[in-house]
Amino acid sequence: MLRTVKPRNARSKRAMQAREPKEVEDPRIAIFVRGTHTGEKVSAAMKELMSLKRPNAVSFSKKNTVRPFEDASSLEFWAQKNDASLFVVGQSTKKRPDGLTFVRMFDGRVLDMCEVGVDNWVGMAEFKTPKATPGHKPLMHFASELFDTHPRFIQLKSLLMDFFNGEVIDSICLTGLEHVISVSLAPTPASLNSTTATDPSASSKAQDSLLPKVHVRVYTTRLLASGTRIPRVELAAMGPSLDLTLRRHTEADPELMKQALKRPKMRKQDVEKGLGKKRKNMEVDEMGDLRGRIHVAKQDLGKLQTRKMKGLKAARDVPEDSGDSEDEGRSTKRRRQSQ
After folding, report:
1. Of 44, 85, 243, 293, which sits with the fewest C-beta atoms within 10 Å of its C-beta?
2. Where in the cell is it found (predicted)?
3. Is residue 315 in some structural domain?
């Protein structure tokens, strides 16, 4: 672990503040680490993935003796030193040839890992088509229901989403979507739904052999005229093309995952705008004004307290036929006013 460093000047203080947790995090930085032996296929695949991840990618050119599933201390040291939260470790051995390990970090510690084997690979140079601009956000497409039901593919989908996700933005222009990353699966074998695939007593190696392969394809988009405001979109293969096989994996610790998914409390202004938890009988109109609905019990208007004025008082009982009395009353009132 790195020791706590106290900033000596304003420049180092700003650098340390930039690494502190934020409500909206910066783009994730991925470090590509080469093992003691990678091989031509793994090295080329890492180079192609790094080109898709740029400019948020760091490559370690030297070979390193690193085994993520046995000892992750080196990864934690590099994560804190380089302010990185993603790792791609390439290692090829006799037992597990052409292997890539995706590692996700949280708070300087390993959150979860997933190892895949590279079966087939085709680089960008083989596709004579225009390439996407580095740094643009891709459109992710997952074409299988197993990405929402099977735990192994749910983890892989989450890792790939974090790996290729760039800067957090509110909206994007249609022309800004230059490339699409499509992740699909091979036909699911019938034995995957059998009791042997879900039996806890079955070995993990036997279960991994039943999982279908993962096909990763990258396409560029072409916006063509369609006669309407919505253009016609065509896809052209850009590369790279990868066929992966799921191998070992490490699930996230429940407590650490709970901390990673924890969100900061919403500000009062955001809650009033409707961004936070919806409150009962309160809504925000199109003009941005907060409106509330109040429910009041049925009122008894007979007990309503009104303003005391002479016009609301009950009139005195005066006979209708006594016209002389009215004249006498008027004359008496005039005498009083004259006095």
Report:
1. 293
2. Nucleus, Nucleolus
3. no
Query: What is the CATH number for 215?
Result: 3.40.50.10480
Count CB atoms within 10 A of the CB of residue 31.
22
User: Residue 111 falls within a domain, yes or no?
Assistant: yes
- Residues with Cβ within 8 Å of residue 191, at least 6 apart in sequence: 197, 210
Query: Hey, CA dihedral for 60, 66, 68, 72, is it positive or negative?
Result: negative
Q: Residue 319's pLDDT is what?
A: 54
- pTM across the whole model: 0.71
Per-residue pLDDT tens for 111-139? 999 999 999 989 999 998 889 988 888 99
Do 239 and 127 form a contact (C-beta atoms < 8 A)?
yes
Segments forming the whole domain that contains residue 136: 25-167+174-189+209-251
Asked if residue 187 has a cis previous peptide bond (ω within 30° of 0), the answer is no
- Whole-number pLDDT of residue 196: 40
Classify residue 153: in a domain, yes or no.
Answer: yes
Of 4-13, 18-27, 78-87, 112-121, minimum mean pLDDT range? 18-27
Kindly report the three-state secondary structure assignment for every residue of 136-157.
CCCEEEEECCHHHHCHHHHHHH
Report strand pairing: 86-91 vs 30-34.
parallel
Number of domains in the chain: 1
pLDDT at 227: 87
Question: Cβ distance 87 to 52 under 8 Å?
Answer: no
Angle, helices 39-53/151-164, rounded to nearest 10 degrees: 60
What is the Rg, in whole angstroms, of the alpha carbon atoms belonging to the chain?
A: 36
Alpha helices in the chain (DSSP H): 10-18, 39-53, 73-82, 146-149, 151-164, 195-198, 204-210, 254-260, 268-272, 323-338
**Residue 289 to residue 133: CA distance in whole angstroms:** 41
